[in-house]
Design brief:
The chain has 9 helices and 47 strands. With 848 residues, it is mainly β. The protein folds into 2 domains: 713 residues, TonB-dependent receptor, beta-barrel domain (Maltoporin, Chain A); 95 residues, no CATH class. It has a 22-stranded antiparallel barrel. A 5-stranded mixed β-sheet has the order 3-8-9-6-7. Strands 14-13-18 form a 3-stranded mixed β-sheet, with no helix packed on it. A hairpin with a 6-residue loop joins strand 4 and strand 5. Helix 4 packs across helix 5, helix 7 crosses helix 8 and helix 8 packs antiparallel against helix 9. It is globular. It starts with a helix and ends with a strand.
Length: 848
């Protein structure tokens, strides 16, 4: 196997040879003796000013309408095919989608955490990546800003920004209709219309799309009431609408108002067996459940005994106004958004009825934001000052409950060492009977809440179906404000200094209430050993002089019988917590223009993401014997990134070749790591993470008319520190979902065929080296290296009146995991949420 260094050297050498050959070819070849084609300029707003991407002294990937359309980009996940260094994955639901840049990102399964990569759509921040996931409609461009953007995009953008700009209204009538048909029953219809309402004063733009698709996964659904059914999982069924108005009442005022609405009603997301040991298979089968063992993820077969549901509504309104004043341009961006999600889930991913999310699982997110910026030019100083304010209200309901097979399943787990195994569900009652003699000891030594006896429920009554969480509700309010300035001063004709500074103040308040329909099995332990039954049992067993091995075994049994969903210790008190985080972040950069066609830069930036609260059951506070837990704190610290970068941007040979490269080094303090243990989510602040590497982007207008080649390479080494506070299995290791090597390329060829009929051929490829998909870096969760190929061929009329295109994605049908995870209460069993298989289709489009 090649070493990392060898692979990196080969990639770098190959890139050098390709680019060198391309440069040689363009210098010595001319086609038809005419003027040489050049690379189109992409205007970006990465610094909240309109400027060429080649003039911005940061690492940025900018993708225009043609590049996105030819790559089939409809949402932020599709973008990975052409954006090196970017990872976007989904897990339990597509509402749980997370982006990572330079290896840094936040696992999105816990809404208490906000992503390190900010998603902005038309200047409005989406507070979770999953909230920004969906059909983006007509896209003008997408900017991938790599590294901390702690000045201008200061709200939780410690790793980078995905800045999406949709098509704006125009003062000329126009429109489009598009229909796409593909395999897996895929169909998508969209249309747009734009034009003036009042000439040169008021224009509109309307866009709507409807999409449906059968699922990629066969879900074997067996509820025990008849023959098993086979359903499609990972389906699509959505519609989206966007209405815009562009208002220019005078030469000095321009406003853009946007309303959008989206609705999704889909069966998503089931998990296949990724790796499965014989022991968990035996226990699942013992209660009549079914899984695939040995695991065969390429078969794309999943199991459940309950229906899935994913319903999402997303809507919002925004208003952006630019007002020309004598001193500069005043920009105001006001937005109000609401996002709702209701879902159910079979969380054990087998046909055994072990545990599930039923009614009562929802997320409601309301957010108001206001940003004001004033920009201007004073001599050699290009200045900007501004302020930002947001108010967010998040309500999250959770209700994990036990299924009808849980007691029998748990009984076998608890008595696995018995020969022969105790019959189930008698096993749970038998283990409780073994623990019962310790109850008087607990009361005698003063364990808080211990009552001196342990009621042993009859077999079959310890964990009735439907017990567990009746309803947990987390109400969180977040208020954030910031003041910022971002300025560029031209020191000489060639040398410029850019400096930005931002002060952010954020307060979060969470009020959590808990309601447990406690099963008798856990209730008996809480009666005997108090609200913290495991600690109470250990204390009693120690006082009774039991051997260490016996104490460990009894404590494990008690922990399995009193999982977080069964414990009542939070029901009487709940908790209310508040935290305030404040931070100064910013950037300083030097830019030097070596010529009109090349500039270099060096810079430092600091990014900041506020702390928050783990919105999952947490039992880490002091215990009152009568009330339970009285002062639980599920908070975690803010995440801070310091980044250093040096790079260049060039337009070579008369802008025939654009070549950009940079090297970066980042230090992350208190990295927010969210880990699923197989039972619950745990948030840890990792003291330090370092990320360093190299990024290269190029675009080449070849001597062949209509043939353009773009691509990029990223080498990313993102590692956990080796501090004693970091878990031993993480120290010094590459962090999860962070390949070391990314390589992307896109080839687009358009040429006239006959008359005004043109042909199109497009190919894009993405290679990533191997990486671990699990937050705990379990070797079983390793994803091997793979390459994705997408292609598109078509015919169109030169004036755009019509086009027909055939396309395919993941042409080699790579079966790879977005995320692999520990299956619920199945030690040795691993599931995975798979990425899409090979798909193909035809798109018909007309424009006028």
């Amino acid at each position: 196997m090649m070493s990392t260094f060898t692979r990196t050297a080969l990639y770098a050498a190959a890139s050098t040879l390709v680019l060198g050959a391309a440069a040689q070819a363009q210098v010595f070849e001319q086609v038809g003796g005419g003027e040489r084609r050049t690379i189109d300029t992409i205007t970006v707003t990465a610094q909240q000013r309109e400027e060429s991407a080649q003039d911005v002294p940061i690492s940025i990937g900018a993708y225009d309408t043609d590049a996105l359309q030819n790559a089939g980009v409809k949402d932020i996940k599709d973008l990975i095919s052409i954006a090196p260094g970017l990872m976007v994955t989904s897990t339990q639901s597509e509402t749980i989608t997370t982006a990572r840049i330079r290896g840094i990102g936040t696992v999105g399964d816990n809404f208490g955490l906000e992503s390190s990569v900010g998603v902005y759509i038309d200047g409005v921040f989406r507070s979770r990546n999953g909230v920004g996931f969906g059909d983006l409609g007509e896209i003008e461009r997408i900017e991938v800003l790599r590294g901390p953007q702690g000045t201008l995009f200061g709200k939780n953008t410690s790793a980078g920004v995905l800045n999406v700009v949709t098509a704006a209204p125009e003062y000329e009538y126009g429109g489009s209709l598009e229909a796409t048909f593909g395999d897996y029953g895929y169909n998508r219809y969209s249309g747009s219309l734009t034009g003036p309402i009042v000439e040169d004063v008021l224009a509109f733009r309307l866009f709507a799309a409807k999409g449906e698709r059968d699922g990629f996964t066969q879900l074997v659904l067996d509820d025990g009431n008849g023959p098993a059914e086979v359903r499609d999982s990972e389906t699509q069924d959505y519609y989206t609408f966007r209405a815009q108005a562009l208002w220019t009442p005078s030469d000095s005022v321009e406003g853009r108002l946007i309303y959008d609405y989206s609705s999704r009603d889909e069966l998503c997301c089931s998990a296949v067996q990724w790796d499965y040991a014989a022991t968990p298979e035996f226990f699942v089968n013992a209660v009549g459940g079914q899984v695939i063992a040995p695991a065969d993820p390429e078969a794309r077969i999943a199991f459940a005994n309950r229906e899935y549901m994913q319903e999402v509504e997303d809507q919002g309104v925004s208003a952006e106004f630019d007002i020309e004043l004598p001193i500069g341009t005043l920009t105001s961006v006001t937005a109000l958004r609401r996002w709702d999600n209701d879902r159910t889930q079979d969380i054990d991913y087998s046909t055994a009825d072990i545990a599930y999310r039923g009614s009562g699982n929802y997320t409601r997110l309301d957010r108001f934001s206001q940003e004001v910026r004033l920009t201007g030019i004073w001599g050699d100083l290009d200045w900007l000052v501004g302020g930002f304010l947001s108010h967010e209200e998040l309500e999250l309901g959770d209700a994990i409950r036990y299924g009808d097979d849980w007691e029998a399943y748990l009984g076998r787990l608890l008595t696995a060492g018995s020969v022969p195994p105790l019959g189930t569900p008698a096993g749970v009652s038998a283990v409780l009977s073994q623990i019962a003699p310790l109850a008087p000891v607990a009361a005698l030594i003063g364990v808080p809440g211990a009552q001196g006896f342990l009621p042993v429920p009859a077999p079959g009554t310890a964990f009735p179906e439907g017990t567990g969480v009746a309803q947990d509700v987390y109400d969180q309010t977040a208020q954030s404000w910031a003041l910022f300035t971002h300025n560029t001063y031209r020191l000489t004709d060639n040398l410029s200094l850019t400096a930005g500074l931002r002060y952010t103040h954020e307060t979060k308040n969470v009020f959590a209430t808990f309601d447990t329909n406690s099963p008798a099995g856990c209730g008996a332990l809480e009666t005997a050993f108090g609200p913290d039954p495991v600690s109470g049992l250990i204390a009693a067993a120690t006082a009774a002089g039991l051997p260490a091995a016996s104490i460990s075994g009894l404590a494990t049994a008690a922990g399995n019988m009193c999982l977080p969903y069964a414990r009542t210790g939070l029901d009487q008190t709940g908790y209310q917590r508040e935290r305030t985080d404040e931070q100064v972040s910013g950037t300083i950069r030097l830019t030097y223009d070596f010529s009109d066609d090349m500039m270099g830069y060096v810079g430092y930036s600091r990014g900041f993401k506020a702390g928050g609260f783990n919105l999952d059951r947490s039992f880490n506070g002091p215990v009152d014997g009568a009330l339970g837990y009285t002062d639980v704190d599920s908070g975690f610290a803010p995440e801070i990134i310091d980044a250093y970068e040096v790079g260049f941007k060039s337009q070579l040979f008369g802008n025939v070749l654009q070549l950009n490269a940079n090297a970066f080094y980042q230090e992350v303090e208190d990295f927010q790591l969210n880990t699923f243990t197989g039972i619950s989510f745990v948030v840890n602040s990792i003291e330090s993470v370092t990320s360093y590497g190299l990024e290269v982007d190029f675009a080449y207008a070849t001597p062949i008319d209509g043939l353009d080649i773009t691509g990029g390479y990223a080498y990313v080494n993102a590692e956990y520190g080796d501090e004693a506070s970091t878990a031993p299995n993480l120290r010094g290791k590459q962090i999860s979902l962070s390949p070391e090597n990314f390589l992307t390329a896109q080839i687009i060829y358009e040429r006239p065929l006959w008359g005004d009929i043109w042909g199109l051929a497009s190919l894009d490829a993405r290679y990533v080296s191997d990486y671990n998909t699990g937050s705990d870096l379990d070797p079983e969760k390793l994803q091997e290296a793979f390459t994705l190929l997408n292609a598109r061929v078509g015919l169109n009329q030169a004036d755009g009146q019509w086009s027909i295109e055939a396309w395919g994605r993941n042409l080699t049908d790579e079966a790879y995991a977005q995320v692999a995870f520990d299956q619920f209460a199945q030690s040795g069993g691993f599931g995975a949420f798979m990425a899409a298989p090979r798909t193909w289709g035809i798109t018909l489009r007309t424009e006028w």
